[in-house]
Amino acid sequence: MTDEPPISTSIAEWPPKGRPTSAGAAARSPRIRPSLRRRQEELEQSLLDAPSATWPEAAEKARYLITLFAETLGAQDRRRQKLIASALDDLDRLSRTAVALPDA
User: Fold this and answer.
1) CA distance 18 to 29
2) Across the strands, what pairs with 54?
């Protein structure tokens, strides 16, 4: 049994408190990297387990993926940083209205 708190499935709580906020910081810490990677895998699996039921849930998944991209070298360009910030703002603004997704 581990003494770590259970994984939260909320993107709003990612990365876990007290953990590095970037992939680079995690890679530099051999002690934290395996634990962070395991928790990230658990979070991603929980996101894959069921389709989003609402637009805010779908936006939460998109926000997570955009945040992962934002930590890559390809996202360091100033224009892309502005685009990322704009997309995240759009997701926050548009997801405030909770509307159920139509059944597929």
Assistant:
1) 13
2) 100
3-state secondary structure of 99: coil
Tell me the pTM: 0.61
What pLDDT digit, counting tens, does each position of 16-32 carry?
Answer: 555 445 555 555 555 66
CB neighbours of residue 89 within 10 Å: 10
Task: Tell me the CA end-to-end span of the chain in Å, nearest whole number.
Answer: 40
Residues 47 and 10: beta-carbon distance below 8 Å: no
| Dist. CA 72–CA 103, nearest whole Å | 34
Which stretch of DSSP H or E encloses residue 78? helix 78-94
Nearest to 52 by CA among 43, 61, 44: 61
Residue 9 bridge partners (DSSP): none
